[in-house]
Amino acid sequence: MASMTQRVFSAMQPTSDSLQLGNYLGALLQWVELQDGREAIYSVVDLHSLTLAPDPAVLTRRTRVTAAQFLAAGVDPERSVLFVQSHVHEHAELAWILSTFTGMGEAGRMTQFKDKSAQVGESGTNVGLFTYPVLMAADILLYDTNLVPVGEDQRQHLELSRDLAQRLNARLGEGTVVVPEPYITKDTGKIYDLQEPTKKMSKSFSSPRGIIEILEDPKVVAKNIKSAATDSDAVIAFDPENKAGVSNLLTIYSALTGRAIPDIVAEYEGKMYGHLKGDLAELVVEALTPVRERTLDWVESPDRLDAVLAEGAAKASAIAKVTLGRIYDSVGLLPKRG
């Protein structure tokens, strides 16, 4: 079973050439903090990406680039385990076991399945998309995970993981798997699209001008912030309902500096939106440029990067093998000899 130290698991898909500011502020910075005092396991979950039928060469490149951004942001392979999901075969094997414990209606109620299948239509909806939450549950339960950092959009999937863990323990014996708990991360506020500030900033749905990419040219990053949509009254105030654009900029400013939004608003009293945008552009570029440069260093050294991922996969496999073996025994699969 898990060690006395609390174990944390979290992951991201390699679905883009660059992570965006919301990933950085809402996840990566939290991951870095969680390395202190906990056993942290982080993964690039490439098997999940197959539900979108990516170009094989693109998937390979994006998997490396995503891992490189984790490292560049401060994920330390000396203090955590970093690996690629497909390098640990136990993920797929446990997903099959869990699928036999999951009801069709239960899987069909997953909000993300409904949303994504509606976007791609019946012809683009595959079985992998339907069983995606089961593989996610396998990702979590495989490591006897105690804590899972989750955003609101993943909370339902974590609840499925908890339900399946409790179901396994009820049917197969208490302690078969650890029931994970949500880890409520520091509230940085949701980051919205710069051009459509009522919509979440997203690689899938944001326009090029609406998103801040970690690996984007700093000049483009600054330009996007300075051209962010606001409103016509030119009063800097935090009012997400009536002033979504400027409120989004204030949220980003607060997340980067750690300052309270009312203090930032007071500083800009009587000033124009251009002052806020210009200062924020400098802050964002200053924060992301070192991450961008370190990412490029990793990408340009693929052998060094692959070695880190191989070492991480070996560490992850050692844990996963024990968990899966315990579950195999519990469900009655004949032990392999020799």
Shape: globular
Whole-angstrom Rg: 21 Å
Q: What is the CATH H-level superfamily of the largest domain? A: HUPs
Number of domains: 2
Whole-number mean pLDDT: 92
Span from first to last CA? 24 Å
Please indicate the percent range of residues in DSSP E strands (runs of 2 or more).
5-15%
Number of helices: 13
CATH class of the largest domain: Alpha Beta
CATH architectural name of the largest domain: 3-Layer(aba) Sandwich
Q: Which fold name corresponds to the CATH topology of the largest domain? A: Rossmann fold
Number of strands: 5
Major sheet description: 3 strands, parallel
What spatial order of strands do you see in the largest sheet? 1-2-3
What string gives the helices and strands in order?
A: EHEHHEHHHHEHEHHHHH
Class inferred from helices and paired strands:
mainly alpha
> Helicity level, as a percent range?
40-55%
Low-confidence parts: none
In short:
55% of the residues lie in helices and 7% in strands. The chain contains 13 helices and five strands.
SSE layout and pairing:
Blueprint: E1 7-12, H1 21-34, E2 39-44, H2 46-49, H3 56-73, E3 80-84, H4 90-99, H5 104-108, H6 111-124, H7 127-141, E4 147-149, H8 155-172, E5 181-183, H9 218-226, H10 244-257, H11 261-267, H12 273-299, H13 302-331
Parallel strand pairs: 1-2, 2-3, 4-5
Helix pairs in contact: 3-12, 4-7, 4-13, 7-8, 9-12, 10-12
Can you put this structure into words, describing what you see?
The protein is mainly alpha-helical and 338 residues long. It folds into two domains: 7-188 and 301-331, HUPs (Rossmann fold), CATH 3.40.50.620; 208-296, Tyrosyl-Transfer RNA Synthetase, CATH 1.10.240.10. 55% of the residues lie in helices and 7% in strands. It has 13 helices and five strands. The protein has helices spanning 21-34, 46-49, 56-73, 90-99, 104-108, 111-124, 127-141, 155-172, 218-226, 244-257, 261-267, 273-299, 302-331; strands spanning 7-12, 39-44, 80-84, 147-149, 181-183. The strands form two sheets. The protein has a three-stranded parallel β-sheet. Helix 1 (21-34) links the parallel strand 1 and strand 2 (39-44). Helix 9 (218-226) runs antiparallel to helix 12. The protein is globular and about 75 Å long.
